[in-house]
Amino acid sequence: MEPLLEHLTPTPQSSFRLYTRVDDHFSFEWHHHPEYELTLILEGYGRRFVGDSIHGYEAGDLVLIGPYLPHTWQSDESSSDNTAVVIHFTEAWVKQGVGSWPELQYLARMLDRSTHGLLFDERTRARAAEGLKALSSMSGLGRLARLLEVLYGLASDPKARTIASPGYRRSSRPIDPRIDRVCRFVNDRINEELTQREVAAMIRMKPTSFSRLFKRAMGKTFIEYVHELRIANACRGLVESDDPITDVCFRSGFNNVSNFNRVFRRLVGVSPRAYRRQFHEPAARA
């Protein structure tokens, strides 16, 4: 998708931008910007979109987003309290620091990898969260030192993994309003019946032309995008309820159990039943 280019205004009192986002609902706002972004979810749960990746998130989720990497967080309808700590810092700030102080060389590799987004290990996230939450009450050199300390901890995480696929390519081009409209429409109606022909007609395009546009912008087909969203919903339903798998299937937007099982195994690697068992059996033993 070609994302909205967001313009961020730095403050004269700080070399980086820090704010706490509090909202009843994190809406789908596909965007990118030239700054690096570090986002910690304090409250809430839903779906995280980074490049061509779609995954669930919950409290404690911590990711580093590189420049011009499109992203958004969309909270679930049942998630009424949503809070995130967000930090932005510029590429120029990083290059100046790394070039001037050899002690900051540890940042270089991590920031290079962040061009595809980075998700950190659970222990690393917990340690970093304490430092990030403390930043809002700090100022001056102490606040800068604390941020560098947090970044050092993240850069030392051997289990940090990239989020977007290796083949994903970023773009600094502005948003295509047709693609943005389509993604908002699909995200709002993901549990309903959706056809490529219907969506193409909505933006007054032929299905074949729409298919090429969507694949070029998103790096995946329209059907693949819909399947990933629905499987993300199904995963949450399997973990958070004891409802029959067929109910989870239909509630997630699939109208055929066999197709649901096949798509689920392809995207998750195991069957829906085995996926549920991975979560429920440890809880039963405890």
Automatic annotation (TrEMBL):
Cytoplasm recorded as keyword: no
One Pfam family of this chain: AraC_binding
GO molecular function, one term: sequence-specific DNA binding
Residue ranges of the TM segments: none
Keyword entries, A-Z: DNA-binding, Transcription, Transcription regulation
Entry annotated with the keyword Cell membrane: no
The organism's place on the tree of life at top rank: Bacteria
SUPFAM superfamilies, sorted: Homeodomain-like, Regulatory protein AraC
Domain HTH araC/xylS-type span(s) in chain numbering: 180-278
This protein's name: HTH-type transcriptional regulator YesS
Highest classification ranks of the organism: Bacteria, Pseudomonadati, Planctomycetota, Phycisphaerae, Phycisphaerales
